[in-house]
Specification:
The complex is a heterotrimer.
Chain A lengths: L1 H18 L2 H20 L3 H24 L11 H7 L4 H30 L8 H26 L5 H12 L1 H17 L5 H25 L2
Helix pairs in contact in A: 1-5, 2-3, 2-5, 3-5, 3-6, 3-7, 3-8, 5-6, 5-9, 6-7, 6-8, 6-9, 8-9
Chain B lengths: L2 E11 L2 E12 L3 E5 L6 H8 L7 E6 L2 E2 L4 H7 E4 L11 H11 L6 H10 L15 H15 L3 E5 L7 H16 L3 E5 L3 H4 L5 E6 L2 E4 L5
Parallel strand pairs in B: 3-8, 3-9, 6-7, 7-8
Antiparallel strand pairs in B: 1-2, 1-4, 4-5, 9-10
Chain C lengths: L1 H27 L13 H28 L2 H33 L7 H22 L3 H33 L6 H4 L8 H43 L1
Classes of the chains: A mainly alpha, B alpha/beta, C mainly alpha.
């Protein structure tokens, strides 16, 4: 079963790199979002340091939504999704395969986004980068778990990208709050522990447990 | 010996009744061919046998396995090839088959997959992305799964579409070999001509009821 | 069906009577010594907030019932409850704003409860939009039910994270007493009656909506059958 999950994720990541579609659009989209923030807020040095957590998390959120819109697109041609459902796999395994593929792509983008943000906003907190990355990693796990489920939910809907954003944003509010607060704590005190980190972990645990189950209900006939 | 027993299957979509009462018995080496007009419920019946749709009424066993309860185990023994090729355009034929092997959790080596591709005549294109293939080539590749997967039960929905004369003869050869090796085939078609070459049991699906051809008319 | 219509009409009149009686009590109640007349807004605000949450609870129960038993009634109830809940959430937010202007001096404050209510409203709208967006009624029903349950799990997390966020991080700019007004003494009976009236109102609206949805679905089936037999 692990082999099947790996192969599903491999298929998605491979496809992405061959056509350089989602990964590069996500990356450049995130740059565009940063540009918008700069133009909208024009933060000076001090403000920038305060704004970094919010900037990073909002960019991550918007970028992820964009990537999620494409998660099930590759399954549309030639009825590929039907083919997946015909495989002798539990529905949860299908979910984890799709999730893993999306997670890898999102994490690659996050890995580049953190240094880019620090450079573009000229914030000197390089010593905190590993901790910031770790927080983004935790957040992205839960975010993509919920997101892939919602992407499956809106897969056949009209104007699905809009719908996906409308559903995802209120539901990830706790993740956003916890992520921003935990990151602010890291930047202010260099301290990773705290209630917000716990909330992030709780969110991840709940959605990684709930999403495969919800996915099973969605695709059942 | 593989055995498929579907008893008194009925199915409805919302309030529309598609299958009223379908009973079908097949054993290994047999090829049951379902004839019927468009919308007569052939595809629905195959989808039910493939566990793609949940059985609403009646029951179906593959050997002693109730497919409604043991869906996963049933899917592992069954291969359903329908209107769609289920292929990924960005992957090559070999990669598509590797993907198929891994999600079906088959113990098949890479060489056997390459061999299967050669047998369907796609050896020259083994590393080309499937995206640029013609409909006939895609069909051949999706049928290569039969050779690679060696299922016990093969469900084919209009397998002859997109195939030329040569392709039809080739496919009939594949089905014939599969039968002789002890495979069980259920095939839906509206074209008796192409099926004629097969050693098969004809059935007619009409008004949601399945009847053996020849007995009623 | 006839019995349901009769019951619903009867329920409608009862609701109207209860609302009238409760309103009379509201205006009969004494003014609050701190809040003056604007306290009367709370008699709408508090019951509708309760109903917005209560309807979501019902929605969750209907969703679980639908997924479990595949009952069409449960699905119709899910479809009917969402807009009613959304309406209550909207009334809650609007009345909260109206009350906030004289009391807090602003139309809106990122108070934990108001923020949660806003999220709830967006969630309701999302549930309605999801169903409207999916053409296949069975898929739409299943997606909506899963979303409702997801929301039910998420709502407490949202609420607590917002509470922590507003209390731990930035202390509220207004005093705690006025942020969570405690109503007691002679101000209590109108609130109780208003809550009862709103509960009946919610039930009445949901049943009314159920009838509309059932009628529409029957019509759809007839049309579909006609197309199918002609084709």
């Amino acid at each position: 079963m692990l082999r099947a999950i790996y192969r599903l994720a491999w298929k998605d990541v491979m496809g992405d790199f061959r056509h350089r579609s989602t990964f590069s659009s996500m990356l450049f989209f995130s740059l565009a979002v940063l540009l918008v923030f700069q133009a909208a807020f024009e933060p000076d040095h001090q403000e920038a340091q305060r704004l970094v957590p919010g900037l990073l998390w909002s960019t991550v959120l918007f970028t992820t939504i964009m990537g999620l819109g494409r998660v099930f697109q590759s399954e549309e041609e030639n009825g590929a999704f039907e083919g997946l459902l015909l495989a002798p796999l539990p529905r949860g395994a299908l979910f984890f395969g799709k999730w893993l593929g999306n997670l890898v792509l999102s994490l690659l983008v996050m890995g580049m986004l953190v240094p880019l943000t620090l450079i573009l906003f000229n914030v000197n907190i390089w010593s905190h980068v590993p901790m910031l990355m770790f927080l983004l990693f935790l957040g992205t796990m839960g975010l993509t778990a919920l997101g892939v489920l919602l992407a499956a939910m809106t897969q056949t809907a009209r104007s699905r990208e809009t719908l996906l954003a409308l559903l995802l944003l209120p539901l990830v509010a706790p993740l956003l709050i916890a992520g921003v607060q935990a990151m602010a704590e890291v930047i202010a005190n260099g301290n990773l522990n705290g209630p917000w980190l716990n909330l992030l972990l709780i969110f991840d645990a709940i959605y990684l447990a709930l999403a495969p189950w919800g996915f099973g209900w969605l695709v059942e006939e | 010996m593989t055995q498929l027993r579907a008893v008194d299957i009925a199915h409805r979509f919302g309030r529309r009744v598609v299958l009223r009462s379908v009973t079908l018995n097949c054993v290994a080496g047999e090829c049951a061919v379902l004839y019927g007009a468009n919308g007569s419920g052939k595809s629905t019946l195959l989808s039910l046998l493939a566990t793609r749709l949940r059985i609403q009424q009646g029951h179906c066993h593959i050997d002693d396995l109730d497919i409604k309860i043991h869906g996963e185990a049933a899917r592992k023994r069954t291969l359903f090839i329908g209107h769609h090729s289920h292929l990924y355009g960005h992957l090559s034929p070999l990669e598509n088959l590797i993907f198929f092997r891994d999600i079906y959790q088959l113990d098949v080596g890479r060489e056997e997959l390459i061999e299967a591709i050669a047998k369907v005549g796609l050896a020259p294109f083994i590393h080309q992305p499937v995206r640029w293939f013609s409909a006939g080539m895609k069909k051949r590749l999706s049928l290569a799964r039969i050779l690679a997967g060696r299922p016990a039960v093969l469900l084919l929905d209009e397998p002859y579409s997109a195939l030329d004369h040569e392709g039809v003869r080739w496919l009939n050869g594949v089905i014939d070999t599969f039968q002789k090796q002890g495979g069980l085939v259920v095939l839906a078609s509206h074209d008796p001509e192409r099926v004629a070459a097969l050693n098969h049991t004809p059935w007619r699906l009409d008004g949601g009821v399945l009847q053996p051809v020849g007995e009623t008319q | 069906m006839q019995r349901l219509i009769a019951f619903n009409r009867w329920l409608g009149w009862l609701t109207l009577g209860l609302l009238a009686a409760a309103l009379w009590l509201v205006f009969d109640a004494p003014m609050d010594y701190q809040q003056g007349n604007s306290v009367r807004i709370l008699y709408i605000h508090v019951p509708s907030a309760k109903m917005a949450l209560f309807v979501y609870l019902a929605l969750t129960v209907f969703s679980v019932w639908f997924l479990w038993k595949k009952s069409e009634t449960a699905d119709i109830l899910t479809e009917a409850a969402a807009p009613v809940g959304a309406a209550f959430a909207m009334v809650t937010l609007a009345s909260g704003s109206l009350w906030g202007k004289p009391m807090w001096g602003t139309w809106w404050a990122w108070d934990a409860r108001l923020t949660s209510m806003l999220v709830l409203l967006i969630l309701y709208v999302g549930i309605i939009a999801l169903r409207n967006g999916i053409d296949d009624p069975i898929k739409g029903a299943r997606a909506t039910a899963v979303l409702c349950i997801l929301g039910a799990v998420d709502l407490p997390i949202i609420h607590f994270s917002v509470v922590w966020w507003r209390t731990l991080h930035q202390p509220p700019s207004f005093s705690k007493a006025s942020a969570s007004p405690a109503i007691s003494g002679p101000l209590l009976p109108p609130l109780i009656w208003m809550s009862i009236a709103f509960t009946f109102l919610g039930a009445y609206l949901i049943i009314l909506k159920t009838r509309e949805i059932r009628a529409r679905r029957t019509l759809d089936t007839i049309e579909a059958e006609r197309t199918f037999t002609h084709a």
